[in-house]
Amino acid sequence: MKILLVSDEPDPSLWDYYQPGRLDEYDLILSAGDLEAEYLSFLVTMAHAPLLYVHGNHNTSYDVRPPEGCDCIEDRLVTVKGLRILGLGGSAVYSGGKHQYTERQMKRRIARLNHAVKKAGGVDIVLTHCPPKGFGDADDYAHRGFEAFLGMLDRWKPRAFVHGHVHMAYGIPRELRYGDTRIVNAWQRFVLTTDPETGDQFRRQEEASL
């Protein structure tokens, strides 16, 4: 199963310089937020694969005009081709805007999903916009990570934690590890490959260029 991860900035090779068939190889697309609705609608149309997304802190326009043909998984756990994926979008509060949360609010959101995770027998991918505190976040107030995510990782132990929000230009690593969980910054474009039927770990990575 080949999964395309996108976040924050369109990849020119998939937008400005798109060539027919370039998205045919993907089985699933995950958006970690802060991309225009038109871009996500384009990707899901060209790829002919499901596209799941969460909100970034700048995605207030989604409330009026959401991405067409895409599925929002905020505060939900869904299963796609045997892969259990949970969504928790938004960033830490920095201006009081929509899709911004305090630590307490995020802890409550996580707590409300405990039953769904238990019922599903676990979770494979957690899709967020904001990174965990100390693992891929930045020093400035707007880009700090959630401490609540660390407790969630300790408890659920997902195979992958996918986020956006912090651009690679900030000097943040593309990948980090937290225990058995692979933390991936989806900025612009990244690819994971896995086999949920055999339990193979995500084993392939591609940088954002074609």
Question: What characterizes the major β-sheet?
Answer: 6 strands, mixed
Could you say which overall geometry the principal axes of the C-alpha atoms support? globular
Secondary-structure element series = EEHEEEEEEHHEHEEEEE
Q: Which structural class matches the secondary elements?
A: alpha/beta
Work out the number of β strands: 14
Low-confidence stretches: 205-210
The end-to-end span amounts to: 19 Å
CATH superfamily: Metallo-dependent phosphatases
Give the DSSP E fraction (strand runs of 2 or more residues).
Answer: 25-35%
The number of domains: 1
Which strands sit side by side, in order, in the main sheet?
A: 4-3-2-1-13-14
Q: What is the gyration radius calculated from CA atoms?
A: 16 Å
CATH topology value: Purple Acid Phosphatase, chain A, domain 2
Helix content: 10-25%
CATH secondary-structure class: Alpha Beta
Walk me through what this model shows:
The chain has a single domain (2-206), classed as Purple Acid Phosphatase, chain A, domain 2 (4-Layer Sandwich). It is 18% helix and 28% strand. It has helices at 37-47, 103-112, 114-120, 148-156, and strands at 2-6, 28-31, 51-53, 71-72, 76-80, 83-88, 91-92, 100-101, 125-128, 160-163, 175-178, 181-185, 190-195, 200-206. It has a six-stranded mixed sheet, with helices on one face. The protein has a six-stranded mixed sheet with strand order 5-6-9-10-12-11, covered by helices on one side. Strands 7-8 form a two-stranded parallel ribbon. The model is unreliable at 205-210 (pLDDT under 50).
